[in-house]
Amino acid sequence: MKAFTFERAHSPADAAAKAVATPGSTFIAGGTNLLDLMKLQIETPRHLIDVNRLGLDKIEGVDGGGVRIGALVRNTDLAADARVRKDYGVLSRALLAGASGQLRNKATTAGNLLQRTRCPYFYDTNQACNKRKPGSGCAAIGGFNRNLAIMGTSEACIATQPSDMAVAMRVLDAGVETVKPDGTTRTIPIADFHRLPGDTPNIETNLIPGEFITAVTLPKPIGGTHIYQKVRDRASYAFALISVAAVVQPDGRGRFAFGGLAHKPWRVEAAERLSGAKEIAGTVLAGAKTTPQNAFKVPLVERTLGAVLAEAKG
Amino acid sequence: MNDRTPETASTVTRRGVLTTSAVGAAAAALPAPVLAAGKPEPARSVPTMPVTLKVNGRTRELELDPRVTLLDALREHLSLTGTKKGCDHGQCGACTVIVNGRRINSCLTLAAMHDGDAVTTIEGLGTPDKLHPMQAAFVKHDGYQCGYCTPGQICSAVSTIAEIKEGIPSHVSGDLTVKPQMTVTEMRERMSGNICRCGAYSNIIDAMSEVAGIDQGGVDA
Ligand SMILES: Cc1cc2nc3c(=O)[nH]c(=O)nc-3n(C[C@H](O)[C@H](O)[C@H](O)COP(=O)(O)OP(=O)(O)OC[C@H]3O[C@@H](n4cnc5c(N)ncnc54)[C@H](O)[C@@H]3O)c2cc1C
Ligand code: SF4
Ligand code: FES
Ligand code: FES
């Protein structure tokens, strides 16, 4: 790790203000992604702002029937929350399908949303990677790209966003509450939170520099059957090849978001007016750009969606 | 030819070595001019920080470089070498310790983030004369071969049973609205963050089953 200085923030607004006051600052929450990347010198912050003790570790009901999840709520606690298990089961399921028990005890809601790609070339500092080193090229295009994106890719980057939780947040239409360095606050709809790679794969979200996440909100429960189906190379403790987050209503209509396909959780609302796995998958995957190694994801999405629809029917 | 004198070579500080350890192996094989072209940044010196940890019931006051992980604080600064470093990247579970009642990977957290926290390591679970029931069960069931992953496995196993009792669900829990059951399937899923290269998994599950009071009777195995 490169040397850094360390301080503790006193409030969310203080964290945001501190982040722009000291050049090279980065927030540290659970640290399970950031420290991994710092050890490899993929991330080299000069100053860490510890945001763990700001009291943002509560899950509360809000007026109108939704919930507000503090940014520092640990993945284990979010998955185990009685209200989340009852009304937002897809979120519990997605969290429990990710990482390991130890990691979920440490990983936070905001940190999970902001975890960086698992593209093998991003992790290898000897390789060209536009995300890690803008302008250096992309070793994955034409390299080993079996698990990389097929939707919304660019000439610059074909990486995926690896968070399982984010896929469930997308299907639930979550909102990301933030405070900016100037002290103003806003809520970013999850659909607009992560960006497609375009020419700037190094910019992964629409947060501005120093903007600090305080909470994630979920609108009031929508009922239905909640399913998170993750397909991976081993049964536990592996990232998704693809995943489907679904909330299916008794009439068979549903909402579907997909992981492992793109630089953001992938959801095409227009497809949700259709019925049948083939039709829905066909619309969701319109414009897919595959490589010989990852073309398997196209039929895999349709089949996994088919399994999800069958499971929802009971 | 390497034109550095032994004197200049010996001025390389431990911190300098540590900061470049990720590239150290590759750099060592390069001739000096190439190294110079790589323009290594001079090691930046940052102030150390006071960190107080309550480890296995004892309050320990440390003065640490902010980079020191909880794992390195335990092993290198407190000489508690029971906790092991396997991957140093959250992938193997060898470094599992219990902090404020929850198991975590001590390699992926900074000691400075745990100022004031209570840490239980394998040394704190039991002693050679008075083993923790999980330690005794691992011995009885041969829950290891080389033993390297074992301290992490035991800390994780103790926490796994506690998490099931607490009602925390897992990926294999059927109905999310009821408490998870104490089963072998549940324990296996929850232990997936602890890798054992010797493949002692089935004996580990036998040890855990005994402590959890599950009669395996061939079910699930
Ligand atoms: C071996 C391994 C396996 C894994 N498997 C999976 C998996 O299967 N599925 C999955 O989804 N994930 C998986 N993960 C990733 C894991 O979920 C993330 O590491 C974790 O969620 C990150 O959360 P954190 O709190 O530790 O983030 P940190 O590492 O603390 O932070 C991550 C980023 O978020 C920023 N940040 C944190 N909090 C805030 C805030 N409040 N406001 C603004 N910025 C903030 C930090 O500055 C940093 O850039 C795995 C990780 C490991 C190591
Ligand atoms: S796909 Fe993106 S992250 Fe992977 S090497 Fe290319 S630019 Fe880097
Ligand atoms: S050493 Fe921490 S998980 Fe491997
Ligand atoms: S006993 Fe050798 S790695 Fe597990």
Describe this structure as you would to a colleague.
The complex is a heterodimer of chains A (314) and B (221). Chain A is of the alpha+beta class and 314 residues long. Among the domains of chain A are: 5-52, 2-Layer Sandwich (Uridine Diphospho-n-acetylenolpyruvylglucosamine Reductase, domain 2), CATH 3.30.43.10; 225-313, Enolase-like, domain 1 (2-Layer Sandwich), CATH 3.30.390.50. In chain A, 27% of the residues lie in helices and 18% in strands. Chain A has helices spanning 12-21, 34-39, 75-80, 82-87, 89-96, 101-106, 109-113, 120-123, 164-171, 277-284, 297-313, and strands at 5-8, 25-28, 47-50, 59-61, 67-70, 175-179, 185-189, 212-218, 225-231, 242-248, 254-259. Chain A has a 5-stranded antiparallel beta sheet with strand order 4-5-8-6-7. In chain A, strands 1-3-2 form a 3-stranded parallel beta sheet, with helices on one face. In chain A, helix 5 packs antiparallel against helix 9 and helix 10 packs across helix 11. With 221 residues, chain B is an alpha+beta fold. Chain B is built from 10 helices and 5 strands; from the N terminus they run H-H-H-H-E-E-H-E-E-E-H-H-H-H-H. In chain B, strand 1 (49-55) and strand 2 form a beta hairpin. Chain B starts with 5 loop residues before the first helix and ends in a 9-residue tail after the last helix. The model of chain B is unreliable at 1-37 (pLDDT under 50). Chain A binds chain B through residues 1-6, 28, 30-32, 35-36, 39-41, 46, 48, 50, 52, 76, 79-80, 85-86, 89, 92-93, 96-97, 99-103, 105-106, 125, 235-237, and chain B through 15, 18-19, 22-23, 41, 43-47, 49, 65-67, 69, 88-90, 93, 96, 102-105, 108-110, 112-113, 156, 159-160, 163, 166-171, 173, 176-177, 189-194. The structure holds flavin-adenine dinucleotide, iron/sulfur cluster (SF4) and FE2/S2 (inorganic) cluster (2 copies). Flavin-adenine dinucleotide binds at residues 26-34, 36, 51, 71, 98-99, 103, 106-108, 110-112, 114-115, 162-165, 212-213, 239 of chain A. The site of iron/sulfur cluster has 15 residues of chain A, from helix 8.
